[in-house]
Amino acid sequence: MVNSRVASTTAAVTAALVGAVVTATPPAAAAATLTVAADGTAQYRTVQAAINAAPANSSARTLITIKAGTYREVVRVPANKPAITLQGLGSTPAQTVLVFNNSATSHGTFNSASMFVDGRDFGATNLTISNDYVEKPGSEGNQAVALHLNADRAVFRNVRLLGDQDTFLVNEKTRAYMADSYVEGTVDFIFGGGTMVFERTTVHEKRTTGGPITAASTPATRKYGLLFYRCTVTATTNNTTQLGRPWRPAGQVLFRESTLTAAIRTAQPWIDMSTNSWKNARFSEYNNTGPGATKNSNRPQLPESQAADHTPQKYLAGNDGWNPR
């Protein structure tokens, strides 16, 4: 899997990353803007009403601005509504909240989300997506998804994703990028078989007893799964949080150049899931720092020779050279 034409030095890796930023193209300007305000001062009172009004099967971007407030509704962006951007108008993402409280108890995990995104080229900025179902320790059906993402080329900037178990489902159709954001949960709260890059994002385990952050189900035929690049991992208590476990045997996860706080269970940050052994999964770390970034035989490190092949742009490029950075 290593490309012999790629230099293996740290200098080459840095150059590749810088080049990716320099050549990134800005997002296309919105062709239409729809407005939402729960108090009736905009075109629509709900986010879903604005999505329903967006043109179907359009290549032009639709910007939906959302006045600060709390919007308790299940939001669905269907596959025939591509190129939609949701933008919160509050001064912080905490001021515009899209929230619901379904759970796996009555809906099943995949259908419990507060937001479903199937439309390609989706964007979200300056808002919060939350599932505020209260986890019930010791009972079945604790899973409650905040965001079910099943769309190619989705971008999230300055967004908060809040939940407990299974906060964020990155489904197999997904290729996505998240930057300068915040994701919190308890168990397997970033999971699925899609390809996604998290950059400069804080990932927080909020349960006092800890738990695994990721549960990747990357298909064995897919090279890239989840990349955490220059992120920060925190938790409520120290030495309780695992980096992940394999939902399917070939799950792929890399924590790269990230700050791992004392939250991480340093002796064993990867664990098994059912009959899937973490040792057979594609789990690794590269140049992480912080008290949780120790090295031992239970912590596979990405070889220097493969570093240039595991940059954010390599994960995101696909067959079309997509570069949201």
Automatic annotation (TrEMBL):
Single GO term (MF): pectinesterase activity
EC number(s) reported in the record: 3.1.1.11
Active site (catalytic residues): D188
InterPro entries in UniProt: Pectin_lyas_fold, Pectin_lyase_fold/virulence, Pectinesterase_Asp_AS, Pectinesterase_cat
Pathway(s) per entry: Glycan metabolism; pectin degradation; 2-dehydro-3-deoxy-D-gluconate from pectin: step 1/5
Signal peptide range: 1-30
Source organism superkingdom: Bacteria
Record-linked PANTHER family: ACYL-COA THIOESTER HYDROLASE YBHC-RELATED, PECTINESTERASE 53-RELATED
Family: Belongs to the pectinesterase family.
Descriptive protein name: Pectinesterase
Organism: Lentzea alba
High-level lineage: Bacteria, Bacillati, Actinomycetota, Actinomycetes, Pseudonocardiales
